[in-house]
Write a structure and sequence with these properties.
Strand 4 (about 115-120), helix 5 (about 125-135) and strand 5 form a beta-alpha-beta unit. The chain has six helices and nine strands; from the N terminus they run H-H-E-E-H-E-H-E-H-E-E-H-E-E-E. The two termini are about 30 Å apart. The protein has a seven-stranded mixed β-sheet. With about 230 residues, the protein is an alpha/beta fold. It binds S-adenosyl-L-homocysteine (SAH). S-adenosyl-L-homocysteine binds near residues 75 and 126.
Length: about 230
């Protein structure tokens, strides 16, 4: 994927010019302490997080926290975005599914590293906002779809990697079925308020699970997720 706003393969970060650039450089330094994969670091540098944050919160765009994006949803913490992307182990030729488009930020990072990204979102207003942002940044290899009756994008699989950016009570069977052999599923699993980030790798019919640590995501709603009683909808 070629982004419009950042060039420089291997050019290194531009020298800080103002407080925005200094804040971004600080965010990237923090990520570098936890994430080794060079390509993931390049992607985090290439995608401007402030383009995905509501205008009133742009001054906080490079702090390492989740931020509200409307409809009770959040853009994920940048370090978690980088860790999930690293766990997806992308080489450039993959087809990737993201569940939970939100602002489109994680989708843009994935699209920088993979051949094609399909991302699904249940809230129409967020989907439309993410589509507009991705288009504006020149991200042409990510498609934002509305969430259908089956979790994920069953008609578009199988996927080499699936990244779920909302928390599920269990590893959803529907997503395992959309995972290619040797595919990676990165998903927060646990209770509504606290979860464990899991990397699930498929080998034939066998699944290997590895924990990447504790985390806190908004709930995945509907089939394979939590009940919708206090979630928004499209
Ligand atoms: N990846 C996003 C963060 C998204 S927050 C970003 O980078 O900004 C999680 C998103 O998952 C929310 O927007 C929520 O509406 C969406 N979501 C929840 N349940 C879903 C489901 N079953 N299918 C698709 N999207 C879902």
């Amino acid at each position: 994927m070629r982004l419009r706003l950042r060039g420089g393969n291997g050019a290194g970060p531009a020298p800080p010019r103002d407080s925005r650039d200094r804040a971004e450089a600080r965010m990237l330094r923090l990520i570098r302490r936890h994430v080794r994969d060079r390509r993931v670091l390049d992607a985090m540098r290439a995608v401007p997080r402030d383009a995905f944050v509501p205008p009133g919160l742009r001054h906080q765009a490079f702090e390492d926290g989740a931020l509200p994006i409307g409809r009770g949803q959040t853009i994920s913490q940048p370090l978690i975005v980088a860790m999930m992307t690293e766990a997806a182990a992308l080489d450039g030729d993959e087809r990737v599914l993201e569940v939970g488009t939100g602002s489109g930020y994680q989708a843009a990072v994935l699209a920088y590293l993979a051949r094609e990204v399909v991302t699904v979102e249940r809230v129409g207003a967020l989907r439309r906002g993410a589509r507009a942002t991705l288009r504006r940044l020149g991200v042409h290899n990510a498609r934002c779809l509305s969430a259908g009756p089956v979790l994920g994008a069953p008609g578009d699989g199988p996927f080499d990697a699936i990244v779920v950016t909302a928390a599920a009570p269990e590893v959803p069977e529907a997503l395992v079925r959309q995972l290619a052999d040797r595919g990676r599923l990165v998903i927060p699993v646990g209770r509504r308020t606290q979860q464990e980030l899991l990397l699930v790798t498929r080998r034939g019919e066998r699944l290997r699970r590895r924990s990447l640590g504790g985390c806190r995501f908004v709930p995945l709603l509907g089939p394979g997720g939590f009940s919708e009683e206090d979630g928004g909808s499209s």
